[in-house]
Amino acid sequence: MSGLPFSSGFAGFAVRRLAGAAVTLLAITAIIYAVFYVAPGDVAQITCGPRCSPAQVHQVAEQLKLGDPLYLRYWRFLQGVLAGQDYSTGTSVQHCDAPCLGLSYQSDQQVTQLIRAKLPVTFSLVLGAMVLWLILGVGTGVLSAWRRGRLSERLLTGITLAGTATPVFVIGLVLMIVVCGQLRLLPFPQYVPFTEDPEQWAWNLLLPWLAFALIEAAKYARLTRASMLETLAEDHVRTFRAYGVGEKAIIGRHALRGALAPVIALSANDFGSAIGGAVLTETMFGLPGLGRELVHAVNVVDLPVVVGMVLVTGFFVIVANAVADVLFAVADRRVVLA
Q1: pLDDT at site 7
Q2: Are 264 and 189 found together in one domain?
Q3: Same-domain status, 84 and 214
């Protein structure tokens, strides 16, 4: 029976967090719509792109119904995301299934289809790099805290500082020159879908994973070290030492668990941000992901694609943080009771 209150309390906590995430998503759609579609200037011309003829701009203005009140335009935009909508291409009507993020007037493709085609590449990059940066970062941080004041701790601290200060394109370029060019240990990265060949998928992504992870791992190493040192200075840890509990047991069973809370929160935020923020890594290694598509959309002024990418990035950030809150509540019951 002791687990029942926690179970019901945890369910309520999870529902509240998910409801909060839904409200935040709604607010983000309103903000993004206001920023991109209510900005000063000719919205139809910006949406259609600089190469559109006056007739095409007029057609886009009619599709967006720019003469209607703002709340009606936003409602149609939101309705398209939730239920889909129809688009006129001039010669035919094209239906866009939910979630419909608009139509690219540069490529005449649905934004949702463009994102779905690029999302597996970015997901492959971010998930693999996240596993590496957590292993490297948390492991280095724990070792630094354990060996505090010794030469090994100073060396690890120096390495993490160097990693934080080095841009990803520098690390990526050095890795390609040394690993691919000189040593020829790995092929130059070329994305292979996981469904076609899982081994080649991992083999070709190993170098981008490593380059992306080394930058993030430095941040996690410093965070884990600081959290570990703070936990090791608490009274209950001193009590364990007074009772003769070994240092390894204290580090592994007690200090590490307490230090993982900020790591969980940060990793969730970084995962969501990396979905739309892996531009440099994807560009450096020629990976056809969301980041490269976003850069292309900005260069050609493809506003619907930019809006869709921003919405997708915001969605992943919010969902990842909501999941992190739930996982944190599983690890620490005091969060549920708070």
Answers
A1: 58
A2: yes
A3: no
Q: Which helix (H) or strand (E) holds 125?
A: helix 111-146
| Residue pLDDT, tens place only, 201-243 | 999 999 999 888 888 888 888 888 888 888 777 777 778 777 7
Q: Is 57 contained in some domain?
A: yes
Same domain as 288, residue 147: yes
What beta strand segments (E) does 97-255 contain? Answer: 103-104, 109-110
Check whether residue 78 and residue 190 sit in a common domain.
no
**Phi, psi torsion values for 87, nearest 5 degrees:** -125, 140
Distance CA 81, CA 273 (A): 21
Count CA atoms closer than 13 A to 131's CA, side-chain side: 10
pTM: 0.80
Mean pLDDT of the chain: 81
Q: Which two tokens stand for residue 282?
A: 């994807």
Overall domain count for the chain: 2
The CATH code of the domain that includes 154 is 1.10.3720.10
d(CA 110, CA 112): 5
Angular region, 90: left φ>0, alpha ψ -120 to 50, beta rest: left
Inter-axis angle of helices 303-331 and 111-146, nearest 10:
40
Whole-angstrom distance, CA of residue 155 vs CA of residue 142 = 14
Asked if 159 and 272 sit in the same domain, the reply is: yes
At residue 88 the predicted structure's pLDDT band, cuts being 50, 70 and 90, is low
CA angle 317, 320, 324 (to 5 degrees): 135
Lowest mean pLDDT, pick from 41-55, 220-234, 307-321: 41-55
In terms of residue numbers, what domain contains 81? 41-100
